[in-house]
Amino acid sequence: MKVNNTNSRRSFITKLGAGFLAGGLALFPESLKASVKNESLKTGKEPSLDLVIKQVGKKEHPVAFDTSQAIPYGFIWSNVYFKTNKDTGTPENKLGVLVVLRHGGIIFALNDETIKKFRLGERTKLKDPKTKKVITNNPYYDIPDNFIGRKGFTGIKGLQEKGAVFCVCDMALQSTSAYVAKKMNLDADDVYKEIVAGILPGIYPAPSGVWALGRLAENNISYIDASVA
Q: Dihedral of CA 71/131/157/103: which sign?
């Protein structure tokens, strides 16, 4: 599609965002595609996600938890997986665990400031487990112990320390940026840059969540849908 001016381009972005949220696939503007390569994927600053996924596949009992909804089962099942494998003889640092945050699950990849500024809790309807109110921060990042009342169960940061790898869908970050920009009357490119800057430490941006999931079989990584109880 040829875009002739800034206004039509912004309109195009917001329409794509709405379509993606409805479950459809969409193409995105060239400027956003360039941002994925130049900013989001951080080439040269850390190992590529492709390489990291291969490394997960070389570990023992490698598995991926597909987190496509704003519900915390991916972290619960990851903790269970680490504990039960440790109990049966596989040390945490030997276990292969990948958590793919995509679609509605991308909110877990973002820091408190980003979630609050763009009111992402309102969009996902995710509620804080303590206050029972819509979140204005990320309550699942820094839980050092006793997650869901289980000793040794941690949040995202603790799981990373155990060896879990997290990645987040960049296509969903783009569609969310378009949605937020329309809702708050902001520029979609600017929102996208801020959201990417708000990704939590150690979480790898993936071109898309399905891009990451598509590499599981070739690396002998098992798949678990973590968006259902």
A: positive
Between the two ends of the chain, the Cα-to-Cα distance in Å is 41
Sheet holding 95-101, edge to edge: 203-206, 165-169, 95-101, 60-67, 222-225
pTM of the model: 0.80
Cα 206 → chain centroid: 9
Residue 118 above 50 pLDDT?
A: yes
**220: how many CB neighbours lie within 10 A of its CB?**
11
Tell me the pLDDT of the chain averaged across its residues: 85
- 144 contacts 154 by C-beta, under 8 angstroms: yes
- Structural domain for 189, as ranges: 6-18+48-225
3-state secondary structure of 129: coil
Question: What tokens were used for 25?
Answer: 């696939």
What's 139's DSSP letter? T
Residue 213 domain-assigned (yes or no): yes
Residue type for 218, please?
E
| pLDDT at res. 6 | 40
Our count of domains for the chain comes to 1
Q: In the chain, where does DSSP find H-type helix?
A: 6-21, 30-35, 49-57, 73-87, 112-117, 120-124, 156-162, 170-184, 188-197, 209-213
Contact 169, 206 (CB under 8 A): yes
